[in-house]
Structures are given as structure tokens and as C-alpha cells.
Specification:
The complex is a heterodimer of chains A (about 475) and B (about 850).
Chain A (H helix, E strand, L loop, with lengths): L22 E3 L2 H8 L14 E7 L5 H4 L4 H5 L30 E4 L4 E4 L3 H5 L4 E8 L5 H10 L9 H9 L9 E4 L20 E3 L20 H21 L4 H24 L6 H7 L7 H15 L4 E6 L8 H25 L6 E6 L3 E2 L19 E2 L3 E6 L7 E3 L1 E2 L6 E3 L2 E2 H11 L8 E4 L2 E4 L15
Parallel strand pairs in A: 2-8, 2-9, 5-13, 5-16, 6-7, 6-8
Antiparallel strand pairs in A: 3-4, 5-12, 9-12, 10-11, 14-15, 17-18
Chain B lengths: L16 H12 E4 L12 H19 L19 H6 L16 H6 L14 H12 L14 E4 L1 H4 L25 H12 L10 H13 L5 H9 L5 H11 L1 H12 L7 E2 L5 E2 L3 H13 L4 H10 L8 H10 L15 H21 L18 H12 L1 E2 L1 E3 L6 E3 L1 E3 L4 H37 L6 H23 L6 E3 L2 E2 L6 E4 L7 E5 L22 H8 L7 H14 L20 H13 L4 H10 L14 H7 L12 E2 L2 H12 L61 H5 L15 E3 H9 L1 H17 L3 H13 L5 H13 L3 H13 L2 H4 E2 L1
Antiparallel strand pairs in B: 1-2, 3-4, 5-10, 6-7, 8-9, 11-12, 13-15
Helix pairs in contact in B: 2-5, 8-10, 10-22, 11-12, 13-14, 13-19, 15-16, 17-18, 20-21, 20-22, 24-27, 27-30, 29-30
Classes of the chains: A alpha/beta (about 475), B mainly alpha (about 850).
Chain lengths: ~475, ~850
């Protein structure tokens, strides 16, 4: 079977490791790449050239932020009928008490998009974003659900969406990797390339506040000084050249020679890439760099803009802490304070720089949270209860990159449990994301153990309703 | 990568290969047209108007999103976008029977009688009444456009024509012109093809190259200067055989080759997909595999133990313990133990077990057939559930008492009397320690209450210290109780009380039960009706024996092909995990069968096969083609599928790290045991027995000796790692829980950064420099030794000049030598084997 079903422009750099932090695949892969080197870049013209994926790890509460229900509000603290299948075990939610939201959600912008007072920054850019209220997924547990969001699969080891896009479109900037993940989760599967060539795996990057923490690993020279290191490398390369002359056809030998030079250069280029010194004070303030709540996410979001600006296809920023099983009224405001300003600043900044039109920003968790309460102690008062995971419906939003602005898409039932219109499954999100990048998700495949795999598996439909015409 | 690019291999070498594939697909799929769409009755204008005004809008608004040609997924397999779709129905049968409202599922669903549709809420009674009338009228409906697709069925007999399902043959060795080049029948098969294209094999590799190659391929470690000296000096004709036998008998062989097998199991020291749940007993499976490879356990026996070791009649306690542990094959790796829907958990896990069995032993993808007949291989839904039934009758996971989690099934292993004695000794020690801890706890608690009780403010610091130590003691006591010495346990399966045939889970949904499928084997690979499944047992033993039967066309072929791939870089069938109709054809089909039949004849001995392979002339070739035919070879066979040379290969992650430790002299032997150092309380998380979450870990601290032990003994967990295991992630180690018989080989700048700047190679370089200083005082002798250790060959004059200059420039000697060693340890020659 033909491994690369999609004709993809390939750089000569595949043979010579000139592709930034990237990699060269050899043996069979090299031939695959060469064979398809002259095809068109994508299946059809793209609206978006790159993606910034803001991963809200833990499951933000759509019931509090975007989609509260009168039915629940009126019954706050009262039992409601369980819509759940009796096959599903419950912990801490057996009483099924409605849990109203404490902070108002109001119409915002010209479009009247409902957004909580907890997210004033987002509220101020409501007319830029497209709110998806009929999101749904297949698993109520973090890791399978996160895996599905990142790879389309619940449990299999499959390539992550950033690697699919790096594979599908290649790099815009030869000196940077196609996929960078900022402050990532430790689980390598979320940014792994699985059976796609390893050059497409996400490069982990720490948006660090201090110079002590290197942004990527193994950047610090261990020799006495740079000259000593260079001398060591030169000797190594002379050894490599001698071997290369004996085996001129061995691609891997040449690949490592190039990779070594690139690694040496990265020691100086990487720190400048993540150095925010060139940004104006106004920009730093807009993101909240230096703010006690916002600093970490502000740096990450600002870095995301810089990397996108430099042409990285897929930048992911992970912002965790949304898993509010208890005291959601106390804890949710804190998370909102940490993320709202940096995220809103990112959208504004992209807009100001003329980047938003061809940069697709996605804000999404692995699932949402139940409209009824959860209390693991069994004794806490209702106002300090939390919410359990809910993949049946939740909210996400997209902005830029050819998505309609100021649109509220999708509706849930009376209690906010099941999406009744505008349903968007994670597979549909993947399909739509690829579509905006000019890729037909049913044709982006890789043959692995005898099967042509897709990011969307056998599922997924492009959500045409939310696309700009 | 098994993923095969468009065949860069010239088409004339394998004429007809594409056609064969296409033909294979056609043979397997016979179309049968559904009977329903043919006789559409005539309806009156009024009846059709009724449909248009009362039924069609309701269908459009409430049903078609999930039940039409465009629905992804099509819910319940039911399409309501044509009359034929309504009549044909979905997974549960016809949606409506014309004229018979009471026999129509559609109406039951609308009435919320058994089914509840639409899911968002019951429709108005008047609408339900309209549907009743519509069905009574005989379903007037003009929609004929999108008739449901034709159904497919699988033709097993035709499927058996595929090469991999044909019986294994024992073909005669072809006669070759250059018989002097043939040391083994293997060479005959290779030479015959080379000669046919006018190619010559490469010259035999020189002794240094050969020794380094065989050492790395068999043990994952480079030869020592002593090994080199004795091999180079050995002028007997059996010199190479002597080396090979020494290596095959070393434990290092098993420590390398066991990992090849673990790549097919998804082995991890962590369970499941959520939280950091330690797989406390997984290491026993790893140690079992090492032992089995070390003792060259016959492969057929190994296969049987993997699936059904618990069902074998064994009385010897050690043997029985090994056989029980072997069934860990069905458990190590990815089990989603957190799923709150236990039936779903179990059926999902069975699916993983089948995927693993399919890939590891049969080279088949079975997972596809969970929901539908395989799209291109002759594997039907029925085959899947026949195999799955044996696992459905097996206990693999159990729900834990609190919360929603499950855990892997654990069994106690029989002990030898020595083990019992040791355990009792340990238990006595444990009890003594518990007493000490409790006594200290009690004393401090008294001191604490005395201190807080007194009127004058006690020294705050002192009280704080007491509190701190008490917290620490609490952790230590919980930890010590949790890990109290116990009878050895392993993750292993056991038969369920009542073995059952499994019903088809319609579209993979275990609550939508279809017909029950009798337990059995993969029909297309079966040579007769298949084994009879016993009434009182799961049938795993019968399945295992069927896999290990010499008549099974897949097991031996798949296994010898894997061994070939490990020694030659590519398999004779390059898609090592997939022998199906869309996999690759063998480059040397007769050789593959020769090896398979020879393997079985030799009593399924891996070591005999490996021995024969590395002693062959083919394997001993140099990595540069024969100068006489090099240009032709490069042009007609650039991928070297005919094996006109030995490919140069990058070392795997384990071999790189282990070699670094070996050349620096720091490698320490390890007898196995737990990879996760859970004996350090700081590595464990919650161990409370009543917690709703299972016990957890976080890997903060390695044992000091783990820095120097072989990589196979390091824990395998999902999170990105620092420390000894970091190298693994960067150099294409298989992702935890992933399954692949052939690892990717990539080059990335992050690897180069690691070699340049990570502490691990730096420390090895420093240790190597110190060792050289001890072993030789003169620069010349030191350089000689350095090259022997790192590259396995003498230094050349050119290199000596270069190294002398480098040392001159690099400053004071200790630093200069470390720099030089570090440089060599990052070089291509060290990272590759020729």
C-alpha cells in the first residue's frame, strides 16, 4: 500500500537535517518522502496556515462559563432526574443535586454571546470568536479523553494532531520544528508522533520565567567553554567524515553530521527565540507578564504568538487545573484569573499584527462538567460542591483562520447534559481543523500495520456551518 | 516502519506483485444485494401527501441527523432516509413492518417502550399517532435515492490462497554457481537471487567489524579489547563459531533479545491510561521473558505459556510460577482500568488482547473485525468473536473495592521451600521494624500532647520537629504495611467460573448483543475444523496449542521473519507485524519457508536459528557492496532487498546506553527485580487502602545502581523522563504501551543535543578517561586502547595524528582526555554498527 496517500511538498532538507529541531527519517521513510516530493501542498486552498491550540486540561465547567440553564438554576441544591445510563458507576454524584452557577453569565459583544463575568477578557473579544456549545466526546476519564482530543483515539498509541499537521503540511520555517508544545503534560503520547516519523513529534518547550530553566533540554554546554565544545565537535565531525567517505550512500550517517551542526547552532538560537526582551512593555502588560496570577500563562501565550509569527505550524499551550471536583465556586475564579487575560491578549495581539485571519486558535478541554454536583466527602454543603466530568456535552471556542466571528453554535438540552443541535464531536473538530488548513481529513492517511490510519479514524465531519464563506 | 512507501524496489524484480494484491481483494469480497429494495409498492396521492406533510418533516427534524447516509457515525446502523432503509432497518432488525405498527421497532422507540427515541425527549402523542397511521398504510414514501449499500461477505476458502495462509513448505535449496560462497542453505537462497541479476555478494567483513557486529546484534554490547585480541588471534576454522556460542550463552544475549519481544507486548511498569498507577508485578513478566530467552525455551512452548500457562498441568513450583507469570502477556501494557462501565472495560480490553495476539503471533490486524468483517483480509466478524470468546471466559481485570477503578488480576505464585524461608525471614524483619516505627510514633505523640498541654509556650521549633517527624512516620508506616513481605504475586489471568461463547457486540457496543459465536480460531489460517473447545475451560489452551502447531501457517513464519529483521535490518517480509493481503510480499518466499520449517524441525529453538543466521556467509558480508557489481546493485536494488551487502544500522536506544556503560567500564550486572523503586516512600503517592483512587507513584528517585544497569531493567512509564531513561525517549524507544515489531530509526537535532550536552555521556566519558589513565600510561597506548574500546578496531595513523593534535590543544590531561572520549562517544561509528 502506498504509505503517503496525500501528495505533500517535501523539502530537500529531509535528507539533510536542516529542518530546525526537526529530524530526518531514513530507511523506508526517506523513499516515501522522495517519491512524493512534487505534489501539491494541500487538497484545496487553505483558510488557515497555522494553529494555536490552547488546551484547557481538566475539563472547564461550561455550565458556569458559557451555558448555564434556568432549569438547574431554579433547582439549585435540589435533586434532579439522572439522565445517566445505569451501567455507569458513580462516585459522589449519587444524589444528583442541581448545582447552579454563582457568577452571572451575560450576553457580550454585538453578537450577544453568553460569557461569564469570570472571563472579562474573553467577553471583550466575543465578536472575534465562535463558541461551540455542542461539543461532545466519548470517555468520561481524563487520560482517554485527553488522548482522544490529542490523537483521535481513546487508548491506542496514535500520532497527535500536531504531528498530523506537521506531517501533512511540512514546515513554513526551515529553522523551526513544525510542532511545538509549550508547558506540556508529561505524557509523551499527547505530543508524540507514534508511528509517524519522529521528526513530526512535538518539541517540548518550557516557557520559563528565569534564565536558570532552559527552554528545551540539553542546551547547556558541559565543556569548559564554547571553544572547547566546538573543538570537541570538530573532532567528532572529522571522525564522522572519515566514516562517511567509506559509506557515501548511508543517509543516516550524513543525517547525523547535519543534526550535530544544527544542535550546535540551537544552543544560541533557542534562547533568543524564547527571549521576550524585544517585546514592548505594552505588549507584556497586555498579556499579564509579571502578574502574580497570569505570569506563567502570559509567557506561554506570548511565546505562542512569537512561534506562530515565525511560521510554526502547530503550537500548543497547556493550561491545567480545570478539574474541579470540589468547591468549584471557590476554585473556578482562580483558574479564570490565571488564563483569561493571557488568552484574550493573544487574540488581540494576533489581530493587531494581521495574523488572526490565517491563524486558527482553538480553546478546548478534554470534556466539560456535569450540571449536577459532586461531593466526594458526602457531607459538604451544596455551595462547596464540585462537578463531575461530562463528555456528553461541553463548550469550546475557535477564533481566526476562516471561522465565523461572533457565532454561538449548538445548543444543549434543558439541563445542559446532552447536545441537541450543532453537535461537534472531537472527530468533527479534527476534521474541521484539517479542512481549514486545506486538508481533506479522509485523505490524510498513514499506513501502519496494514491499515491506512486517519487522525479522525473512520469518523468526523467538517462543521461547515461555522466556516466563513 | 512497516508503513511501506510506493515500491521504490524496481518493478521487474517482483513482477505481478501489485496485480496479486488487487486480485486478493477481489477474491475475498463477494457482493450480495439486499432483497428489500426491489418491490416498492404503489401508493395513492393522499398517502404520499400524508408522508410529505406529517412524516417527512419529523424525520428531518428529529431523526436524520443520526440515521441517514450522511450520519457519522450512523447510529445503530439504521437509515431512515429511504423507504428501503426503514424496511431493512439497522442492527436491531427492521425499523418498521409495513402494515404492522405493533411489530415495528420504530413505533416502540417513539413510545419509549424498550428504546427511547429521539434521545432529546419523547415527541408529542399526536406525532406518534401519525407514525402509527403511516406504518398501517404500508409506509408510503417516495424516497428511493439513497438506498442502503450492498452488504459484503468474506470468502474464507478464497482467502486461503494468500501466500501467508498456505501451508509452510520445505523447498529444496537452489543450486548456485559460486557454491564456495555458500556456508549454509540460507546462502543458497540468497545467492540464487543475486546470481539471477548478475550480482555478487559483498566480501566478507574484516574480523574487527564482524566481532563488533555480532557482539552488538546478539548482546547489545560492544566487544572488549580482550574479546578482540582473542578473536583476532584465533586461527582455527571455528574461531567465529566459538565467539557466537559464547555470546549466545551469555545472559547479555537474553537481556537484549527479551526486549525485542517486549516491544510486541506493550510492556510497562504502569497500568492503564489514567493516573500514575504502578504495575507492581509487571517486572516478573520481563524477568520471565529474559529467563525464557536465556534458556532457549522452545518457541512453541513459549507461545503456549503466553496465552495459557495457567492451564498447563505443571507441578514443579518454579515451573508453575513461570507459566503463570507468562500469561502476563495478556495483561502488561495498556488496560483502561478506570472505565466506570465495566462491561465496556472488559470488551475493550479483550480487543487489546486480540490486537496483541494478532500482531505478535499471526501478523494479522484483528481489531478491525470487532465491528465489521475485515475490509481486505479474510477475517470475519465471526472469527473475531470466536477468538474473543476464549478471553471473555477469562478473568483479566477485577473491580477494586472502592471507587470506580479496576485492577489487573493478580495471582499468588507457588514458592519453592527456599523462597518460603527467605520470605519468613523478611517478614520477621518487617515485624521488628513495624514495632520500632510504632513505638517511635507513640513516644512522639506523647511528647507532642505533653508539649501542647503545658501552660508555658514550648520551644516552637521543637514542637514543629515532632510534628514533622510524626507526619513522616505516618507515611513510613503506611508504606511499610503496604509493601510488607508477601507471597510472590504476578499479573496473570485465570479462567472464569463459567466459560461462555461471546455474543457479537453490534458495532462494538457490548450492550447491543447479536448472535453468540462458538469459541474457535482464525478460520482462514486453520487446516481443519479447528480445535474442539472444552465445556469447562476458556479454550485459551486450545487456541494456544493451535497457534503453536507446526501446521499453523503463520506462527513460525512470523517468528523467523522477526528474527531475520533483527539481524538484517529488514524482514524478508518488511511489514513484520502484518502478513495480510495489504502487507508486503516476501522478498525470498522460499527462504522464508525454509527458515520456518527448519525452525520447527530444530524444536523451535531460537538460538539455533540465530546461530545459523549469523554464521551464514550472507550475514558475514561487509557493508559495502562488491566492487565488481556495486554500480549495478545500487541502480537495480537500491534498497538492498536482495542482500548484496550488510546494511549499516543505527543502534537502538538500549544498545546506545548499554554500550556507553560498557566502554566506560561502569556497567553493573542486574539479576532483575522491580524496575520502579517503590521501596522509597517518596516514589509512592497515595497508598491508602480505602481511597477511591488506586495506589499511585511518582518517579522521583532511582536506585543509585540503576544508573549503571542495563536499560531493559529501567522502569517503563508514560511520562517524559529525566535521568537514566531519558535517552530512551529520544532514540526511538517504542512509546510505552505501543506495539511494534520494528522500531522507527530517526535522526533529530534533539538527539545530537543529548549527545553533545547531556550529563550521561559526559559522565561515561569521564569514567572512560580515568580508566584509560589506569590501564595505560603512554598516550600512544592509551589511544590504541580507546579506539579498541569505543570502535572495536585499532586506531589509524591519520586518526592518531588528529587525536594527538586534539590532546595538545585541549588543555590539561584529565580534561583533554575526557573531551576526547566524549567526542568519540557521540560519533557515528560508535552509534552505528556496520
Amino acid at each position: 500500500m502506498d504509505g503517503l496517500a496525500v501528495p505533500i511538498p517535501r523539502r530537500r532538507s529531509l535528507q539533510r537535517a536542516a529542518c530546525g529541531f526537526g529530524a530526518v527519517a531514513f530507511s523506508g521513510l526517506l523513499h516515501a518522502a522522495e517519491a512524493k516530493a512534487s505534489g501539491p501542498g494541500a487538497h484545496f486552498p487553505a483558510k488557515a496556515k497555522r494553529v494555536i491550540f490552547l488546551f484547557m486540561q481538566g475539563g472547564p465547567s461550561q455550565a458556569d462559563l458559557f451555558d448555564p440553564k434556568e432549569f438547574i438554576q431554579q433547582r439549585h441544591g435540589q435533586p434532579i432526574d439522572s439522565p445517566l445510563s445505569k451501567n455507569v458507576l458513580q462516585v459522589g454524584t449519587e444524589k444528583f443535586l442541581a448545582l447552579g452557577t454563582a457568577i452571572p453569565v451575560r450576553p457580550r459583544g454585538n453578537c450577544g454571546m453568553p460569557i461569564s463575568d469570570l472571563l472579562p477578557g474573553l467577553a471583550s473579544i466575543a465578536d472575534e470568536i465562535c463558541l461551540l456549545r455542542g461539543m461532545n466526546a466519548d470517555n468520561p476519564q481524563h487520560m482517554p479523553a485527553e488522548l482522544q482530543l490529542h490523537t483521535g483515539a481513546l487508548n491506542d498509541i496514535r500520532p497527535s494532531m500536531g504531528s498530523w499537521i506537521s506531517y501533512g503540511l511540512g514546515n513554513e520555517n526551515q529553522n523551526l520544528p513544525g510542532f511545538i508544545t509549550i508547558n506540556p503534560h508529561a505524557d509523551v503520547r499527547y505530543h508524540g508522533s507514534a508511528w509517524l516519523p519522529a521528526q513530526h513529534q512535538g518539541t517540548r518547550l518550557t516557557a520559563a520565567a528565569s534564565a536558570e530553566t532552559p527552554p528545551i533540554e540539553n542546551l547547556r554546554n558541559l565543556s569548559r567553554d564554547s571553544a572547547a565544545q566546538r573543538r570537541r565537535l570538530d573532532f567528532l565531525q572529522r571522525q564522522n567524515q572519515r566514516l562517511q567517505q567509506q559509506y557515501p550512500h548511508e543517509q543516516s550517517l550524513q543525517g547525523m553530521i547535519d543534526a550535530m551542526e544544527l544542535a550546535f547552532r540551537m544552543q544560541s538560537t533557542t534562547p533568543s527565540l524564547v527571549d521576550l526582551a524585544g517585546e514592548t512593555q505594552a505588549t507584556l502588560d497586555m498579556y499579564g507578564v509579571g502578574g502574580s496570577d497570569t505570569d506563567r500563562n502570559a509567557r506561554a501565550c506570548l511565546l505562542a504568538r512569537r512561534l506562530s509569527e515565525a511560521g510554526v505550524r502547530f503550537v500548543q499551550v497547556t493550561m491545567g487545573g480545570w478539574d474541579h471536583h470540589g468547591d468549584i465556586r471557590g476554585n473556578l475564579p482562580r483558574l479564570c484569573a490565571q488564563t483569561d487575560r493571557p488568552v484574550a491578549a493573544l487574540i488581540r495581539d494576533l489581530r493587531q499584527r494581521g495574523l488572526l485571519d490565517d491563524t486558527l486558535v482553538i480553546w478546548c478541554g478534554e470534556f466539560g462538567r456535569t450540571p449536577w454536583s459532586q461531593d466526594l466527602s458526602g457531607t459538604a454543603p451544596i455551595d462547596s460542591h464540585g462537578r463531575e466530568h461530562q463528555p456528553e456535552s461541553f463548550c469550546a471556542w475557535m477564533a481566526g483562520g476562516g471561522v465565523k466571528q461572533g457565532l454561538v453554535y449548538g445548543e444543549t438540552d434543558h439541563m445542559g447534559y446532552r447536545a441537541i443541535s450543532g453537535r461537534v464531536h472531537l472527530h468533527d473538530l479534527h476534521a474541521t481543523l484539517l479542512h481549514l488548513l486545506g486538508i481533506d481529513h479522509t485523505r490524510l492517511t498513514w499506513n501502519h500495520i496494514g491499515r491506512d490510519y486517519r487522525l479522525t479514524d473512520v469518523y468526523g465531519s467538517v462543521v461547515h456551518d461555522i466556516l466563513q464563506s | 516502519m512497516p508503513a511501506s512507501p510506493a515500491p521504490a524496489f524496481p518493478a521487474e524484480l517482483f513482477p505481478g506483485r501489485r496485480c496479486l494484491r488487487a486480485a486478493g481483494c477481489l477474491l475475498l469480497v463477494a457482493a450480495c444485494v439486499p432483497a428489500v429494495a426491489q418491490d416498492t409498492p404503489q401508493f395513492t396521492r393522499e398517502q404520499l401527501d400524508f408522508f410529505e406533510s406529517r412524516i417527512r418533516p419529523v424525520l428531518a427534524e428529529h431523526c436524520l441527523e443520526c440515521h441517514s447516509a450522511d450520519s457519522r457515525p450512523l447510529q445503530g446502523g439504521l437509515r431512515l432516509d429511504s423507504r428501503a432503509g426503514v424496511v431493512q432497518g439497522g442492527d436491531s432488525g427492521p425499523a418498521a413492518v409495513p402494515g404492522q405498527p405493533d411489530s415495528s421497532l420504530l413505533l416502540k422507540a417513539l413510545r419509549h417502550d424498550g428504546y427511547e427515541m429521539p434521545p432529546a425527549g419523547k415527541l408529542a402523542d399526536s406525532i406518534v399517532a401519525d407514525f402509527e397511521s403511516w406504518i398501517r398504510m404500508g409506509l408510503p414514501d417516495p424516497r428511493t435515492a439513497n438506498a442502503p449499500a450492498a452488504q459484503r461477505s468474506i470468502d474464507i476458502a478464497a482467502g486461503r490462497e494468500h501466500w501467508a495462509f498456505r501451508p509452510v513448505s520445505d523447498p529444496p535449496v537452489p543450486a548456485v554457481k559460486s557454491a564456495d560462497q555458500s556456508l549454509d542453505p540460507i546462502d543458497g537462497f540468497i545467492l540464487a537471487e543475486l546470481e539471477r541479476r548478475g550480482l555478487q555478494p559483498a566480501e566478507e567483513a574484516d574480523r574487527y567489524t564482524l566481532l563488533r557486529r555480532v557482539s552488538l546484534d546478539l548482546t547489545g554490547l560492544p566487544p572488549t579489547p580482550e574479546d578482540i585480541a582473542s578473536f583476532v588471534a584465533d586461527e582455527t576454522p571455528k574461531a567465529f563459531e566459538t565467539v557466537v556460542d559464547r555470546l549466545l550463552n551469555s545472559r547479555a544475549f537474553a537481556e537484549r533479545w527479551a526486549r525485542h519481544w517486549l516491544d510486541l507486548t506493550g510492556y510497562a511498569d504502569q497500568v492503564g491510561t489514567s493516573n500514575e498507577v504502578f504495575a507492581e508485578h509487571a517486572w516478573r513478566y520481563r524477568d520471565y521473558v529474559i529467563e525464557a530467552f536465556h534458556t532457549d525455551k522452545p518457541w512453541d512452548r513459549f507461545v503456549i505459556e503466553q496465552l495459557a500457562g495457567d492451564l498447563l498441568p505443571i507441578t514443579d513450583p518454579a515451573e508453575r510460577a513461570a507459566a503463570l507469570t507468562a500469561t502476563g502477556f495478556l495483561l502488561v501494557g495498556d488496560v483502561e482500568i478506570v472505565n466506570p462501565d465495566k462491561l465496556k472495560l472488559e470488551t475493550d480490553h479483550i480487543d487489546f488482547q486480540l490486537q496483541r495476539i494478532g500482531a505478535a503471533f499471526m501478523g494479522m490486524t484483528l481489531g478491525c473485525a470487532r465491528c465489521h468483517d475485515h475490509k481486505f483480509d479474510p477475517i470475519a466478524l465471526d472469527d473475531y468473536y470466536a477468538l474473543a470468546g476464549t478471553l471473555r471466559s477469562t478473568i483479566s481485570t477485577r473491580r477494586i473495592d472502592h471507587g470506580i477503578w479496576s485492577g489487573l488480576n493478580v495471582v499468588e505464585l507457588p514458592e519453592t521451600p527456599e523462597q518460603t524461608a527467605l520470605r519468613e525471614q523478611a517478614l520477621a524483619e518487617h515485624r521488628r521494624r513495624m514495632e520500632e516505627l510504632r513505638a517511635e510514633q507513640q513516644r512522639l505523640q506523647q511528647e507532642q500532647s505533653a508539649a501542647t498541654g503545658t501552660a508555658e509556650q514550648p520551644a516552637g521549633e521543637q514542637l514543629e520537629n515532632i510534628r514533622k517527624r510524626l507526619r513522616q512516620l505516618g507515611t513510613e508506616i503506611t508504606h511499610a504495611e503496604f509493601f510488607a513481605p508477601a507471597v510472590p504475586r504476578a499479573f496473570a489471568v485465570q479462567d472464569a467460573a463459567g466459560p461462555v461463547d461471546m455474543p457479537v457486540a453490534i458495532r462494538g457496543n457490548p450492550y447491543a448483543e447479536g448472535r453468540r459465536i462458538p469459541r474457535g480460531v482464525l478460520r482462514v489460517a486453520a487446516w481443519d475444523a479447528g480445535p474442539v473447545m472444552p465445556a469447562g475451560q476458556s479454550g485459551r489452551l486450545e487456541l494456544a496449542r493451535w497457534l503453536a502447531d507446526p501446521r499453523n501457517p503463520l506462527t513460525a513464519r512470523v517468528t523467523v521473519n522477526r528474527i531475520w529483521q533483527k539481524l538484517f535490518g529488514e524482514g524478508l517480509v518488511r511489514s513484520v507485524d502484518y502478513f495480510g493481503t495489504r502487507g508486503e510480499l516476501p522478498s525470498h518466499p522460499q527462504l522464508l519457508d525454509h527458515l520456518a520449517s527448519r525452525f520447527m524441525r530444530s524444536g523451535w529453538s531460537q538460538k539455533s536459528l540465530i546461530r545459523a543466521l549469523v554464521l551464514s556467509r550472507t550475514w558475514r558480508q561487509a557493508s559495502r557492496g562488491h566492487s565488481a557489481t556495486l554500480a549495478v546493485a545500487e541502480s537495480i536494488d537500491p534498497e538492498n532487498r536482495l542482500l548484496w551487502k550488510m546494511p549499516v544500522r543505527r543502534l537502538e536506544a538500549e544498545a546506545i546506553r548499554d554500550s556507553l556503560l560498557a566502554v566506560s567500564g561502569e556497567l553493573q550486572p542486574c539479576a532483575g527485580g522491580p524496575g520502579l523503586p517503590l521501596e522509597y516512600p517518596e516514589n509512592t503517592g497515595n497508598l491508602q487502602p480505602k481511597s477511591v483512587n488506586p495506589p499511585s507513584f511518582s518517579l522521583r528517585r532511582y536506585r543509585p545502581e540503576q544508573e549503571f544497569q542495563r536499560t531493559i531493567y529501567l522502569p517503563v512509564v508514560r511520562s517524559a523522563q529525566r535521568g537514566p531513561a531519558e535517552l530512551r525517549d529520544l532514540f526511538d524507544f517504542i512509546q510505552p504501551n505501543g506495539i511494534s515489531g520494528r522500531r522507527a530509526e530517526t535522526i533529530a537535532a534533539t538527539q545530537a543535543l543529548y549527545l553533545l550536552n547531556n550529563e550521561l555521556p559526559r559522565k561515561r566519558a569521564a569514567a572512560l578517561a580515568e580508566r584509560l589513565a589506569v590501564d595505560a600510561s603512554e598516550t600512544a597506548a592509551r589511544l590504541e586502547l580507546l579506539w579498541l574500546r569505543v570502535h572495536g578496531r585499532p586506531i589509524t595513523a591519520d586518526e592518531r595524528r588528529d587525536a594527538d593534535d586534539f590532546l595538545q590543544a585541549a588543555g590539561e590531561p584529565a580534561e583533554a582526555w575526557t573531551e576526547l572520549c566524549h567526542s568519540l562517544l557521540g560519533s557515528n561509528e560508535f552509534l552505528h554498527r556496520k
